[in-house]
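Today's session is about reading a structure prediction critically. Students often jump straight to the picture, but the first step is always the sequence itself: look for stretches that repeat, for charged clusters, for runs of hydrophobic residues. Only then move on to the predicted structure, which in these notes is written as discrete structure tokens rather than atom positions. Here is the chain we will use throughout the hour.
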Amino acid sequence: MPVWRTLFVAFAVTAAAQTPKEVRATAKQGPGALPQLQSYLKNPDNKIREEAVKGITDIGTGRSVDLLIEATRDNDENIQIRATDGLVNFYLPGYIPSGMTAPLRRAGSSIKARFGDSNDQVIEPYVKVRADVIHAIGSLVRGGAGPDSRANAARAIGILRGAEAEPDLYSALKSKDSEVLFESLVALQKIRDESAGPHVQYLLRDLSEKVQIAAIETNGILRNRAALPDLRSVLQATKKTRVRRAALAAMAMLPDSADRAIYTQYLSDSDDALRAAAAEGLGRLRDPADRKLLQQAWENETKRTALISLAFALVMNSQTQYNDTSPLRFLVQSLDLGTGRGLASPLLMEAARDPEIRLQLYGPLEQGTKEQKIAIAQILSEDGDRATEAHLEKTSRDSDPQVAAEGLRALRNLRARL
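Below is the predicted structure for this chain, in token form.
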């Protein structure tokens, strides 16, 4: 036997003889241990390979990324998931405790439990992800070892804003697995490429309520106006409250004067979420004829959910002044409340695309509460222009460290976008 082959066999036997404990000890040596950890990726024992991926992830260097890409090509589903989460963790530090691998640390727990968690994480716009990372994860979306690996990879693509993997997500939308479908839809929402709309329209009538609602929301977020006839049909036919709410909210994101009667009808519905969606639809129409109707609804409303949407509608209908009783101030004040912040922030972000409204937000950015400053900084990072830079620079020097950090983050995102 040639010497080189003898050495190779001896090395392979040595690698195969390692225990998970020994792999962990090797990983503690830091970046210098990466070549040895890489050799463990070829070990026939799944536990050894899993520990190697965990160690590579913990080391977290640029070289680690290369090895994690290699690990995505493993034929074991759990290892594919660990490698994917490791790549996300490199670009979004701290992701691992909430990623799909978290349940794997607890004996007897199911990977699918992760899919019940919120899925709102996304990297900052200024963070640039290597193309080969997106390609590797996209390959898992299309052809992972199992549905959990594919769903987890789709979630990762959304978090990393991996637009290059959109064809892989389209392929995943043909899956029969609801979690793969759901995660792929949410990923497309995060990427926000409006050309993706037609690819998700056929899922508006999916038999899974979870998938159907995600498809409805995706068509609205991606501004797919071609979906309006289907959305109207779903709104009329469904007996499910959550589906009805989603359908009307999506229609409100696609304002059409032909739907004015529908918005007006639901403005007085007994369900406050439906009233809120109707108000937003009327607000986006920006028809001066609706101001009196919206003002009356605003004065009579008692539920905060609908009040926030009515305030947005009035702001969109030219009530842009900022004083003690104005709708715009009400929206800003809602940023102080946990549930209100989640409702008011995206509506303010949309409204602030109007330069006149954006100008009004510079005041509370400087003089508002801590929560208002943080939320408005985030809004302006998405909507601001060159004139916004000076305001965010000032926020980045705020006396509150958390506000200052948010101001700096927003400034970096603004500059990356501009």
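Discussion point for the tutorial: The first helix runs from residue 3 to 16.
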